[in-house]
Each structure stands twice: as C-alpha cells, then as structure tokens.
Specification:
mainly alpha, 2 helices, flat
Length: about 70
C-alpha cells in the first residue's frame, strides 16, 4: 500500500492498517485537516483503550468471570 501523503510503500501484511496509522501519526499528522485529525485522535484513543483492556484482562481476568462477593451465595 502506498501512502497518500508521500512515496513510502508499506508492506501488505497482517499489520498493514496499524502500520499505516503509525506512519501517518509520525510523519504526516500536521498535514491532516481538522476532520482527519479528529478521526485519527479517536482511533488513537480506541487503540489505547483496547490495549488497556487486553492488559487488564490478562492480569485480572475476564470481567465476565469476576463475581461480586456481596451477591454470591458461596
């Protein structure tokens, strides 16, 4: 995939979208218009939220499996 802001060609692999996202952030963020910057920032927050959730799920466990001890009969 070729970047629409420069001549860089990104490898077409499983991380293509994420690599393109990071490439835009590092090299072309200032070139984006206001709407594209807003969408980029939303995607960045989503990715951070997803990473935080996966980290907590790995360390604490799946929230669906954590029981409230006040309502537990055991």
């Amino acid at each position: 995939m070729k970047c629409k802001y420069c001549e860089k060609i990104l490898l077409d692999d499983t991380d293509l979208v994420l690599n393109y996202f990071h490439h835009i952030e590092i090299n072309h963020y200032d070139s984006l218009d206001d709407e594209d910057k807003m969408m980029h920032d939303i995607r960045k927050k989503f990715l951070k939220s997803k990473k935080d959730y996966e980290f907590k799920k790995k360390n604490i466990g799946d929230s669906d499996l954590i029981f409230n001890t006040k309502n537990s009969e055991i």
